[in-house]
Design a protein that fits this description.
The protein has 315 residues and is of the alpha/beta class. The chain folds into two domains: 113 residues, Rossmann fold, CATH 3.40.50.720; 179 residues, 3-Layer(aba) Sandwich (Rossmann fold), CATH 3.40.50.720. The protein is 32% helix and 14% strand. The chain is built from eleven helices and twelve strands. The strands form two sheets. A seven-stranded parallel β-sheet has the order 8-7-6-9-10-11-12, with helices on both faces. Strands 2-1-3-4-5 form a five-stranded parallel β-sheet. It is globular. The chain binds (2R)-2,3-dihydroxypropanoic acid. The site of (2R)-2,3-dihydroxypropanoic acid has 8 residues, from loops.
Length: 315
């Protein structure tokens, strides 16, 4: 008999081992091709998925009626049709909280790299191009006093805001609803258009949903002040073609992107921009955080196999 749990990707060391004989693990850093995924999920009670695994009606049909939980190894859930899962009584869980600090750290790493032109500098040295220190050489943007805008003040946005105090930056944010003052981390709520117009540096941390897809289109990117820096930590919210165009025409000083809408594809127009710092989806990529994400996904599966609710359910 096949094990009741499918794990669709290699997990951090020791994590999948907690499931022992209960699990079949696709022990690879590459996603399962769709046809293999649909075959592998058949008859399972639980599946640990990543953002690359689309969980839709086809997936749920392929799994069959035994499926009780889809435990996403991510805080994001745009790969999952939650309504289709609910209609079949399948629990959905994600991994909130445990990746907040690592992702906020990466937002700051990218922000600093973009504002201070680290990617360009590194490429210049490695290319062997002659260079010399000069008063006007490779000048970046100063952070102190620059208004920092945060689009999406969830856990990660709030952690980005907390880190701003050390850089002496005034912080504003936009969420659909204003947070209670005790959760604002000293930041000021602004309507979206005002936030855009006032942010010298904007960090995007809101979730990718049908409502936020391409929220930052060409028109909204153009509302940022000329010379602004845009940092995107969520795939799909920033229109990548529009971002490349805003770098190309000089409206933006620089940009940094950690997640892409059609990973692993990166828009060639963006790849062509010297002032774009591009990271291969590294937000939560630390040893400790990936261990914690894996453990939480396993905890969710074990809870449901034990007849309980998931520890971190969605919806
Ligand atoms: C998430 O958890 O949604 C991240 O994108 C994975 O790093």
């Amino acid at each position: 008999m096949q094990p009741p749990v499918l794990v669709t990707r290699r997990l951090a060391p020791g994590v999948a081992e907690r499931l022992g004989d209960l699990a079949t693990v696709h022990d690879s850093e590459q996603p399962l091709p769709r046809a293999e995924l649909l075959r592998a999920v058949h008859g399972r009670t639980a599946v640990i998925t990543t953002l690359d695994d689309t969980v839709d009606a086809e997936f749920l049909d392929a799994a069959g009626p035994a499926l009780r939980i889809v435990a996403n190894h991510a805080v994001g859930t745009h790969n999952i049709d939650q309504a289709a899962c609910a209609a079949r009584g399948v629990h959905v869980s994600n991994t909130p909280g445990v990746l907040t600090g690592a992702t906020a750290d990466m937002a700051w790493a990218l922000l600093l790299a973009a504002a201070r032109r680290l990617g360009e500098g590194e490429r210049l040295l490695r290319s062997g191009t002659p260079w010399a220190w000069a008063p006007t050489f490779m000048l970046g943007q100063e952070l102190a006093g620059t208004p920092l805008g945060i689009l999406g003040m969830g856990r990660i946005g709030r952690a980005v805001a907390r880190r701003a105090t050390g850089f002496d930056m005034p912080v504003s944010y936009h969420n659909r609803t204003r947070l209670p003052e005790s959760e604002e981390q000293g930041a000021t709520w602004r309507p979206l258009d005002d936030l855009l117009a006032e942010s010298g540096i904007l960090v995007v941390t809101c979730p990718f949903t049908a409502a936020t897809r391409h929220l930052l289109n060409a028109e909204r990117i153009a509302r940022l002040p000329r010379g602004a820096v845009l940092v995107s930590m969520t795939a799909g919210v920033v229109d990548e073609a529009a971002l490349a165009a805003a770098l190309e025409n000089g409206h933006l000083f620089a940009a940094a992107v950690d997640n892409f809408e059609r990973e692993p594809r990166v828009d060639p127009a963006l790849l062509a921009q010297e002032r774009a710092v591009l990271a291969p989806h590294l937000g939560s990529a630390t040893v400790r955080t990936r261990q914690a994400m894996g453990d939480l996904a396993v905890d969710n599966v074990l809870a449901v196999l034990d007849g309980k609710d998931p520890v971190t359910p969605l919806g």
